Amino acid sequence: MPGSFRELLLQLLPLAGPDVELRVDVLSCSHRDQELCLLTLPFFFFLQNVRIDPNSISFSMWKDIPVPFYMAVHFFEVLNPKEVLQGAKPVLSQRGPYVYRSFRYKTNITFHDNDTVSFLEYRKLFFQPDLSNGTEDEYIIVPNILMMGAAVMMENLPNFVKLLLSGALAGLKQEAFMNRTVGEIMWGYEDPLIDTINMLVPGLIPFKGKFGLFIELNNSNSGLFTVNTGMKNISRVHMVDSWNGLKKVNYWRSSECNMINGTAGEMWPPFMSPTSLEFYSPDACRSMTLVYEQSGKFEGVPTYRFVAPKTLFANGTDYPPNEGFCPCMQSGIQNVSTCRLNAPIFISHPHFYNADPALVNAVEGLHPSKDQHALFLDVHPMTGIPMNCSIKLQLNLYIKQVSGIIQTGKIKPVVLPLLWFAEVSCLPQPDSAEPLLWEGGAASPSPSAWETPLWINL
Questions:
Q1: What average pLDDT does the structure give for the chain?
Q2: Burial annotation 79-95 (CB, 10 A radius, 16+ → b, else e)
Q3: Distance CA 8, CA 267 (A)
């Protein structure tokens, strides 16, 4: 991406004239140097080519992102499933990464008279064995996500319903933990439990066929975005006007938490200030805000670094504005069950970084680290184009003993990490610091990684 970005910026500069060096100098312009930069850059030419316009230089890059994306998935294997059933603390071992190449492109692009454009963005994923530490055929012991999720969801139903489910689970030889391949967990496996649950509790899990965490990711889109083009007001370019026709969502308990703020997470308006940036994440079902941390440079290009505040996943007790996202448990995790069919799903930073220590201490095998697990986003302030990012999120399942469902044993309540992932769009050479890239190094210019491909069928 850095090369593509530099090439794009050079195209945005005047294409003729002897002052080539002056034009290239705009690459090193910071927010404070805007007036000086504009002396060497025809202002209107620049504005015409950073807005969303089929005639602009940047349009093809916006439509079909020219750089490859890579998604590295790390699973948490449960090493002591029998002991966990008896009430022991889960012992986890991180497996992977399993790396996938992602291609992204926009379709159904429709321009409207009110300075907006609508689009669907699709993606395709392809496994990259040469970049992975393992294959999709490897087996991993993880919670029986479908069974344990359904058990918690049915906790408050009449006992006879839970006893019926428990009997059905016994007949199907379902257990609290399963030994499945990476490919099955990712892309789906046949499970007769789906039909059984739908028969006992119609509508509890409104899908049929295979179950997999990423089963609908390939050739999927994240909903119909309508964003500002910047044709009339450049300060509004890329800002979301609506998502799936909605100005607000209805997942949360406060108007503020239901607001759709910021951009779609790909680019931001030019001439940014060092304060904060916002974007709407359909898969997190909410808008998110990153805060300015510091100025820097990425391969010679000035950037503003934005990071996740500790309040991002804080509960309402620690941060009252988040009360609308509750009911909550400890700080550092967000309950997304209200927008995931009431499944007991939580998102967090990897290894519960920046979370309540009680979450880390409830299991063994986690080692939260700012270098490896914190997220940040480096944006070129003059254009609003991301230059470098480290976007990582973790998916967790709340499990516990449920009275009447004997398969849940004596499991103590715990928010159990399932996997975490990092999305990048640049890779080092095979003999370079690849582990650093996946584990915690600077990643890619791809904030759209916030469109987290998780819990597709939950």
A1: 83
A2: ebbeebbeeeebebebb
A3: 14
- The Cα–Cα gap between 71 and 88 comes to 33
Q: How far is Cα 103 from Cα 260, in angstroms, rounded to an integer?
A: 26
Residue 61 within any structural domain of the chain:
yes
Q: Which amino acid is at 359?
A: L
| Residue 33's pLDDT band (cuts 50, 70, 90) | low
Mean pLDDT of 101-118: 94
Asked if the structure places residue 233 within a domain, the reply is: yes
Phi, psi of 122 (to 5 degrees): -105, 160
CA distance 418 to 402: 20
Backbone angles phi, psi at 434, to 5 degrees: -60, -45
- Does residue 286 carry a pLDDT above 60? yes
Q: What's the pLDDT at 273?
A: 93
What does DSSP assign to residue 88? P
Q: What is the CB neighbour count within 10 angstroms for residue 104?
A: 19
pLDDT at 258: 96
Query: In 208-323, at which residue ranges do the beta strands (DSSP E only) sit?
Result: 210-211, 220-221, 225-228, 240-243, 276-281, 286-298, 301-307
The domain containing residue 31 runs over which residues? 2-450
| DSSP symbol at 351 | G
Whole-model pTM over 0.70: yes
- Pull the structure tokens for residue 99: 């790396």
Residues 6+ apart with CB under 8 A from 404: 159, 162, 163, 166
Q: What is the C-alpha to C-alpha distance for residues 82 and 76, in angstroms, rounded to an integer?
A: 16
Q: How far apart are CA 272 and CA 359, in angstroms?
A: 36
Q: Six-digit token pair at 11?
A: 């195209």
Q: Which residue, 112, 74, 350, is CA-closest to 241?
A: 112
> Please, how many CA atoms are within 13 Å of residue 33, restricted to the half-sphere of its CB?
13
**Long-range Cβ pairs for the range 145-148 (8 Å, 24+):** 145/211, 145/213, 145/397, 145/418, 145/458, 146/191, 146/193, 146/194, 146/197, 146/205, 146/211, 147/174, 147/175, 147/176, 147/193, 147/407, 148/176, 148/397, 148/399, 148/408
449 has pLDDT over 70? no
Identify whether 257 is part of a domain: yes
- Buried b / exposed e along 319-345 (16+ C-beta atoms within 10 A): beebbbbbebbbbbbbbbbbbbbebbb
Q: How far is CA 315 from the centre of its chain?
A: 20
- Using N-to-C axis directions, what is the helix angle for 193-200 and 145-153, rounded to 10°? 10
Structure tokens at 129: 């064995």
- Is residue 455 in some structural domain? no
Domain count, the chain: 1
